[in-house]
Amino acid sequence: SSQEITKRLNIPYQRVRKILLKNNLIRSDEDNFWIKYPKELVDKIIDLNINQGKTITDIEKSTGLDEGVIYRLFRKSGVKPKHNGKNRLKILSQKEESNIIQSYSKYESLNKIEKELKTHPRTTKRALIKNNISLKERKRFDYNKDYFNKVDTHEKAYVLGMLVTDGCNQPNNRHFSLVLKATDENIVDKINKELSPNKPLFYRANKQYVGFTVHSVKMSNDLVKLGLPQNKTFKLKPENWMMGEFANSAILGMMDGDGSIYIRSRMQKRRITPDISWTFSFIGLRSLCEMMQKIFKEKLGINGCVTPHSRYKENKEKPLCTVRVYGNKQVKTLLDWLYQDSKLRMDRKYEIYQKLCEYTLKQKRKNQFCPIL
After folding, report:
1. Pick from 36, 105, 194, 210: most CB atoms within 10 A?
2. Over 60: is that where the pLDDT of 168 sits?
């Protein structure tokens, strides 16, 4: 090929093309165009439009050709296409133009504007150009590109913890994203503002899910350095930022992603035994679960229990486990430690923690007047 000759002989590509064209060894782009679209096809398109009164849209559907290609064939044939009332561009009112400009200023895509306002692509672009709005100079979203340079705050550790569990990093495609259920929109919005202050969230599946995407090569590569590669689920391993000064916020982010706090009712054996038992659990790779177990023991003196996940008991390639902490006192101590620093947290899980605090307080008051039998 021309490209292989260029690399082998170290000659500019255009010079190689010129020599090959001169010696009739390759066809020009113009010749290739007419081979791809023969005269019979061009005559058929002209006949459909001029003689049969078909619109460009109708021809587009019947031939499967793009609108731009059809206009190019007319132009090269020296024939002016015939338009009827259906094919003419709509003349927009002042209100319609202002709606297009308003939507575009909110960073909505042209496709979305055209679907919502039911306008033709050229009509939409014409309205923007008419009002001196350049499509090329549209302002990009602002990203905190140095956010993941160094994990030096509890908020950064929390965001990373959340991305470890529910995030998706795609360095090959130069972006990363986070999608949660719409009930957790509040925390998604807060994380989004940490990373991109002026970019709106997107919704999926009739607004059942909410999320954001950050298109930044640098930030995506920084996440890889921090231990979040592409297809990360079974490649994760304990990192320094998970175990250091900001360990509680990092684990809180992971808990908000793949963890839970739940209540079990139990039989009362003694009068002072609580009738409700609280449990903390987190599902993840064995290495992460064992890391949490070690941190809980060293920092808080809490005994965590690591067991293989029921779905992957016999699967050694995908060693998913569950780390659990039982007992009201131990769970209360653990959650106090997790929530003490970070300003970011998932509201519905924080409400469960507040219920635990209220329950513990009631139990203390109750036990003051309950003698041990």
Report:
1. 210
2. yes
pLDDT in tens, 79-90: 888 765 444 556
Radius of gyration over alpha carbons of the chain, in Å? Answer: 31
List, as one string, the DSSP characters of 176-208. Answer: EEEEEEGGGHHHHHHHHHHH-TTPPPEEETTTT
Tokens representing 169 are: 């990093």
**What six digits make up the tokens of 142?**
């602002």
Phi, psi of 244 (to 5 degrees): -90, -140
Q: How large is the average pLDDT for residues 110-114? A: 81
Q: What are phi and psi of 209, to 5 degrees?
A: -125, 150
Rounded Cα–Cα distance for residues 174 and 225 (Å): 14
Give the amino acid at 136.
K
What's residue 247's pLDDT?
Answer: 94
- Helices marked H in the chain: 2-9, 13-22, 29-36, 39-46, 56-63, 67-77, 94-105, 110-117, 121-130, 154-166, 185-195, 217-225, 240-243, 247-258, 286-295, 328-338, 347-367
Question: Token pair of 366, please?
Answer: 């109750």
Q: Write the CA distances from 227 to 40, 149, 212, 362, integer angstroms.
A: 59, 13, 21, 43
How much is the pLDDT for 120?
A: 77
Instruction: Report the C-alpha gap between 359 and 277 in whole angstroms.
Output: 11
Give the tens place of pLDDT for each residue, 292-343: 999 999 999 999 999 888 776 666 666 789 999 998 889 999 999 999 988 8
pTM for the model: 0.64
Structural tokens at position 191 = 């994380």
167 membership: H or E segment, kind and range: strand 167-170
